[in-house]
Design goal:
alpha+beta, 52% helix, five-stranded antiparallel sheet
């Protein structure tokens, strides 16, 4: 549910009309010249070349626009993070197989207009595989763009200052079937791993928590705790030192040690340094 809410709060549209037009024209040209013996300059002198390119580009544009629309709808209903298996199947079925079938039908209609049976041409041997690769590549573009946009979205999120500090002296955690009261002063950091959230105490013991890090952050004292990235909230006493990385990023070392590198993005680095300085 959390992933769904996060995705719904972000723009699921792709403002790439100009890109689709350019790609369609390029694809139309490739489809027409693929397998031709004439040179490019010879084709430029042939009126049929321009007619074929425009018609092929129109079909390509219809296909990429269909893929665009399908992807937008799937982004809203079947987010990659919350429903990866369903999304993969639907993306292949609706984003690849369906446009592939429509491409064949449109081409068949195109040939039929000139009195040609598409099955008696070299279309299936030369042109159709190129179209399928084109459709597949455009699906990959949208998948890659989705995750790129997700990454940029989280990096751009401002550090949220909790409105109040409501974490009581005792924080209830779980280990197996046991509910364990953990003293607030024993907490060194909260972190997310896999599908779960944990809290670690000063002895390096990990306990499962039911709240999300966003919910936990709302309860913490911002003078004591800092959200260093999407995966971790650290207590000031847990911070050993930090190192400067390229592009303004920071690498934080904590105690007890964490098994993975704790990287603070460039956009959070300034706030983190200010938080450290205020404590000093």
């Amino acid at each position: 549910m959390q992933a769904d809410n996060e995705s719904s709060s972000q723009d699921t549209s792709y403002n790439d009309l100009f890109l689709r037009i350019i790609i369609s024209l390029i694809a139309g040209h490739i489809i027409v010249v693929f397998g031709e013996d004439d040179s490019f300059f010879q084709l430029l002198l042939n009126w049929d070349y321009y007619r074929s390119v425009l018609l092929s580009a129109l079909i390509a544009f219809l296909l990429v626009s269909l893929i665009n629309r399908i992807t937008v709808l799937l982004d809203r209903k079947f987010d990659w993070k919350s429903k990866p298996i369903e999304r993969t199947g639907l993306q292949l079925l609706l984003g690849f197989v369906t446009p592939g079938i429509i491409a064949f039908l449109l081409a068949a209609i195109y040939f039929k207009c000139f009195g040609i049976n598409i099955l008696k041409t070299v279309y299936l041997k030369y042109d159709y595989p190129v179209i399928l690769m084109f459709v597949f590549a455009f699906n990959l573009y949208y998948v890659g763009f989705y995750f790129y946009r997700q990454m940029k979205y989280w990096e751009s999120q401002p550090i949220q200052t909790p409105r109040h500090s409501s974490l009581t002296d005792i924080y209830m955690v779980t280990r197996g079937t046991k509910n364990i009261p953990l003293k607030k002063e024993e907490i060194v950091y909260f972190y997310h791993e896999g599908d779960y959230n944990f809290v670690r105490n000063r002895q390096g013991e990990d306990f499962l928590i039911s709240e999300t890090l966003e919910q936990v952050q709302e309860l913490l004292d911002p003078k004591q705790f800092f959200r260093v990235n999407r995966q971790m909230i650290v207590h000031f006493d847990a911070c050993l030192h930090f190192e400067l990385l390229s592009y303004g990023k920071l690498k934080l070392l904590v105690k007890p040690a964490f098994k993975e590198s704790i990287i603070i993005s460039q956009k959070r680095a300034g706030s983190f340094k200010s938080w450290i300085e205020q404590r000093n």
